[in-house]
Automatic annotation (TrEMBL), chain A:
Compartments it resides in: Cytoplasm
EC number: 6.3.5.3
Class in the EC hierarchy, top level: ligase
First-listed, main subcellular location of the protein, grouped into a coarse class: cytoplasm
Keyword terms, alphabetized: ATP-binding, Cytoplasm, Ligase, Nucleotide-binding, Purine biosynthesis
Lineage: Bacteria, Bacillati, Bacillota, Bacilli, Bacillales
Name the record gives this protein: Phosphoribosylformylglycinamidine synthase subunit PurS
Catalytic activity of the protein: N(2)-formyl-N(1)-(5-phospho-beta-D-ribosyl)glycinamide + L-glutamine + ATP + H2O = 2-formamido-N(1)-(5-O-phospho-beta-D-ribosyl)acetamidine + L-glutamate + ADP + phosphate + H(+)
Recorded name of the encoding gene: purS
Domain of life: Bacteria
Keyword Cytoplasm: yes
Record function comment: Part of the phosphoribosylformylglycinamidine synthase complex involved in the purines biosynthetic pathway. Catalyzes the ATP-dependent conversion of formylglycinamide ribonucleotide (FGAR) and glutamine to yield formylglycinamidine ribonucleotide (FGAM) and glutamate. The FGAM synthase complex is composed of three subunits. PurQ produces an ammonia molecule by converting glutamine to glutamate. PurL transfers the ammonia molecule to FGAR to form FGAM in an ATP-dependent manner.
TrEMBL record, chain B:
Gene3D superfamilies assigned to the protein according to its UniProt record, in alphabetical order: 3.40.50.880
Name of the protein in its database record: Phosphoribosylformylglycinamidine synthase subunit PurQ
Chemical reaction(s) catalysed: N(2)-formyl-N(1)-(5-phospho-beta-D-ribosyl)glycinamide + L-glutamine + ATP + H2O = 2-formamido-N(1)-(5-O-phospho-beta-D-ribosyl)acetamidine + L-glutamate + ADP + phosphate + H(+); L-glutamine + H2O = L-glutamate + NH4(+)
Subunit structure: Part of the FGAM synthase complex composed of 1 PurL, 1 PurQ and 2 PurS subunits.
Species this protein is from: Peribacillus huizhouensis
Function, as annotated: Part of the phosphoribosylformylglycinamidine synthase complex involved in the purines biosynthetic pathway. Catalyzes the ATP-dependent conversion of formylglycinamide ribonucleotide (FGAR) and glutamine to yield formylglycinamidine ribonucleotide (FGAM) and glutamate. The FGAM synthase complex is composed of three subunits. PurQ produces an ammonia molecule by converting glutamine to glutamate. PurL transfers the ammonia molecule to FGAR to form FGAM in an ATP-dependent manner.
Any one GO molecular function term: phosphoribosylformylglycinamidine synthase activity
Active-site residue list: C86, H195, E197
PANTHER family noted in UniProt: PHOSPHORIBOSYLFORMYLGLYCINAMIDINE SYNTHASE SUBUNIT PURQ
Signal peptide (from-to): none
Location of the protein in the cell: Cytoplasm
UniProtKB keywords: ATP-binding, Cytoplasm, Glutamine amidotransferase, Hydrolase, Ligase, Nucleotide-binding, Purine biosynthesis
Main location per the UniProt record: cytoplasm
Keyword Nucleotide-binding belongs to the record: yes
Lineage, highest ranks first: Bacteria, Bacillati, Bacillota, Bacilli, Bacillales
């Protein structure tokens, strides 16, 4: 069994309207040192182990569905969970 | 001419679209569920507005993998006219039938109001009934209409005259270059955020959307009906 953590963020080049709104809110609360806020998505996938290349599989799922690579970047961490 | 209105779980502009075609345009129209295996016999395909699959993950992201979309892509590649309005536009982007992607509106709010559009290109099967540069009133109703594409894509959109509608004056959602609607390179797939099907009768505040549907029919007849 694998536990996979997927992080989706808007690309650096794409203006993030939510992040911008949160940043100005933080500024209005006097957190002046915050220079940027980017809002993204976090997903946890539990995947059964078989003969497939897990890295290739997760990458494929990110490219096809989980992220829209026109505006989003993705990264992931794969952890193998050994059942006791 | 026979139109298909594709109905996804969460579509809510399907009835407006059906009404516009049947009662205002006077053409044949049928609802086609997202589960359908075939679009044979339909001369035009309409993807309505709404919140397909609850807009989960991203707008249009899940709808594009629904069963009927394989047929929509096939028909689009064969040159069948495909119009995606609002959520329909978002689905066309996710399906890769149109370039670019949608972001949340610049001000993050859902916007619902009449919008003034400029007809940037009237040499398409969807807009031949309008004058170039004509200003028309079509309502918008969306939370994610902030169109984005990279510079390279924008260059191509301009080069190929794929930008069909832009917002006149104030840009309501932050969309790049004020884009409200674009076509594919072939010109047979149009995606637009404003709702022409909700502007087909003066009682609704505007009848400017009707010309879009009339243009589709006129162009189709010229190509498909002998001695029209």
């Amino acid at each position: 069994m694998y536990k996979v953590k997927v992080y989706i963020t808007l690309r650096e080049s794409v203006l993030d309207p939510q992040g911008t709104a949160v940043k100005s809110s933080l500024h209005s609360m006097s957190y002046d040192t915050v220079s940027d806020v980017r809002i993204g998505k976090y997903m946890e996938l539990t995947i059964e182990k078989n003969n497939q290349d897990i890295d290739a599989l997760v990458k494929e799922m990110c490219e096809r569905l989980l992220a829209n690579t026109v505006i989003e970047d993705y990264s992931y961490e794969i952890e193998e969970v050994v059942s006791l | 001419m026979k139109f298909a209105v594709i109905v996804f779980p969460g579509s809510n502009g399907d009835i407006d679209m059906f009404h516009a075609i049947k009662d205002e345009l006077g053409e044949e129209v049928e609802y086609v569920p997202h589960t359908a295996d075939s679009l044979a016999g339909f001369d035009g395909i309409l993807l309505p507005g709404g919140f397909s699959y609850g807009d989960y993950l991203r707008t249009g992201a899940i709808a594009r993998f629904s069963n009927v979309m394989g047929e929509v892509v096939k028909a689009a590649n064969e040159g069948v006219p495909v119009l995606g309005v609002c959520n329909g536009f978002q689905i066309l982007l996710e399906a890769g039938l149109l370039p670019g992607a949608m972001r949340r509106n610049r001000e993050l709010a859902f916007i619902c109001k009449p919008a003034q559009l400029v007809v940037e290109n009237n040499k398409t099967m969807f807009t031949s009934g309008y004058e170039i540069g004509e200003t028309i009133t079509i309502p918008i109703a969306h939370g994610e209409g902030n169109y984005y594409c990279d510079e390279e894509t924008m260059k191509l959109l301009k080069q190929n005259n794929q930008i069909v509608f832009t917002y006149d004056g104030e840009n309501p959602n932050g969309s790049l270059e004020g884009i409200a609607g674009i076509t594919n390179e072939n010109g047979n797939v149009l995606g637009m955020m404003p709702h022409p099907e909700r502007a087909v009768d003066k009682l609704l505040g505007s009848a400017d959307g009707l010309k879009l549907f009339q243009s589709i029919v006129r162009n189709w007849r010229e190509n498909h009906v002998v001695n029209a």
